[in-house]
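Now for a specimen:

…
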Amino acid sequence: MRERVVNTADETVRPEGTILRLSVTVLRTSDSILNNPRPYGRGYSLPVLRTLKDKGPTHACNGTSTKILFMIVHVGLCGFTMSMKDYARHFPVVEVQSTFYEPPRDEVMKKWRSVTQSLEYTMKVWQLVTHAANSPTYRRMKRPLGPNDEPGFFRDSPMVNEGWERSLECANLLSATAMLFQCPASFSPEPENVDRMRKFFERIDRPRARLLWEPRGTKWVAQRDLALSLCRDLDLVHVVDPFVTPPQPGHPVYWRLHGITGPRHTYTDNELHRLHRMLRDAADPDSTAYIMFNEMPRVGDAKRFSGILEAAGVRSPAGRV
């Protein structure tokens, strides 16, 4: 996080004579938020107004002291959906999907890493950890499940343990900065499921990567407070689609956009501007924000959203905050 104190007497703030609005400025920088010194390519710096609670030099405005905290925003896709070299020219981060269905061979992931050295990787944890045996997603796994296998729902079983260990190997090969546990709607907020989840995260060795959790389904939307409590207790990032689950202000942002009307949905310009406003209002300036598009028209939508961020800023791409 880079921080600058400014006078906010007007809607426009003017640090060092440069006009900035409460929007987004383009930034090229290295980020260490996820404990990885590798440069992540193009990002955006989102100014967020916060009331000053600390001591030190301040600028008062109408009796109120404020500061602007600049939070890094990365826009990416869930899956490449284009050649890796082209992808890295447009986006700084990608979320790997194949690790969820059936992890690729080590050689494949090493090749990805060598071709896209400047790209940041996040990844989905193998479905053996999160999805029960009756999930239709297992149709895409070449290795069939046995009749006595007990995958999914964070069970304390050999299958779940295998899924987690292989996911850790994938994360190491990709130098992944985050690992996503995406749970199906069938993993409902029942006491048994909550207990399994707590025990799983209490018994595993924590990796270097951040751990993300995306609970799906209307029951978890209604039980948002429970989901937030679990994330706080288990040191997880609560992953949401902000058009479905209202984001909690001040929490780390890793949003996955699945399409308002379904996977074929194309976001309108008004919806993308609304996304920008939601990000600004919910932003946690102490961590990098990730906006990941996951619907079928995601390439075009992510590029348009990146354009909205650029259009809102007034500083050069090489500018530093």
